[in-house]
Design goal:
- The chain is of the alpha/beta class.
- It has 2 domains: 162 residues, 3-Layer(aba) Sandwich (Peroxisomal Thiolase, Chain A, domain 1), CATH 3.40.47.10; 85 residues, no CATH class.
- Helices cover 25% and strands 22% of the residues.
- The chain has 8 helices and 10 strands.
- The two termini are 38 Å apart.
């Protein structure tokens, strides 16, 4: 049996935080991007190619033979596992109660479900699921869902795993926001300290709807991590003292989150604009203070 929404909390503390709202706090992060992006070329696998060919015919598309023979063939579970390895061992107090996977490009292989892999790899078998079909804004949706589960279930730890997978046997975007040019994965271990208090610093909608909230959340922020959709999208003028980092192109989902690497402590706003969906999303995180910034 699956629950479509997080269970409602019956206890709402009457505190200042319950009025002002709370933002998630980043504990640490794991970054995985293979250095051999060219990768090892795969050997021809006629049986697997035939399965993909038949599947492609059902959807009116075709299989690219070079997708099997000229790509590194790193499936999504391997990339997610790399991010978990980079995150490092989890102490008992750090174990997440919910873990959400987010991605834009579909997986190359389907023999292992990545969300199931996360549940197997993480101590305590937390609730794990995936969010897709949200364009480049999938991680923002996934984070909000994870926070809502934590808020309503009295949980305090959550994990967001974001993956870009560049190996595809089907024709895909060769340029633009959705084009994945590199394999990359990010794992963000977060704390939710707000109990049942409202979530602050998050918004998603049409640009004209979400932009005022984004501008408001930027006030006093130490960092703006801007996705590629903001390079030519709605204009932003961060406050003096707010540092801006732009996402690297070719990383539809992970690019804007990778911009947090080595970021200084303080409040960070992450934002991106999906031009195809005409939706703007943003969220706010408290980054850990420490030498060298976020690791």
């Amino acid at each position: 049996m699956f629950r479509a929404t997080a269970p409602l909390s019956r206890t709402v503390p009457a505190t200042a935080d319950a009025v002002a709202g709370t933002v998630p706090r980043l504990l640490r992060a794991g970054w995985y991007r293979p250095t051999d992006q060219g990768g090892l070329r795969g050997a021809p696998r006629p049986a697997v190619q035939e399965v993909h060919r038949r599947t492609a015919e059902l959807y009116g598309t075709r299989v690219l033979r070079e997708g099997f023979t000229d790509s590194p063939l790193r499936p999504m579970p391997r990339l997610a596992a790399g991010a978990l390895d980079a995150l490092g061992p989890l102490a008992p107090a750090e174990v997440p109660q919910v873990a959400v996977l987010a991605y834009t490009t579909p997986d190359f292989e389907h023999t292992t479900l990545t969300a199931s892999l996360l549940q197997h790899r993480l101590p305590g078998e937390p609730l794990c699921f995936a969010v897709s079909d949200q364009g480049v804004l999938a991680p923002f949706t996934a984070l909000r869902i994870a926070v809502e589960y934590a808020r309503r279930s009295h949980w305090s730890r959550l994990l967001l795993v974001v993956v870009d997978q560049s190996s595809q046997p089907y024709p895909g975007p060769a340029s633009g926001q959705y084009a994945a040019e590199h394999d990359s994965a990010v794992a963000l271990l977060l704390a939710w300290d707000g109990g049942a208090a409202p979530v602050a610093g998050m918004g998603q909608g049409r640009a004209d709807q979400a932009l005022p909230g984004l501008r408001s959340d930027l006030s006093g922020a130490a960092l703006l991590a801007a996705g590629t959709g903001l390079a030519t999208g709605p204009g932003l003028a961060p406050s003096p003292g707010t540092r801006r980092r732009d996402a690297e192109p070719g990383l539809p989902c992970t690019g804007v989150w990778a911009a947090l690497r080595e970021a200084p402590g303080g409040r960070a706003v992450i934002a991106d604009h999906d031009h195809e969906l005409d939706r703007l999303a943003h969220c706010t995180l408290e980054l850990p203070a420490g030498e060298g910034g976020v690791r």
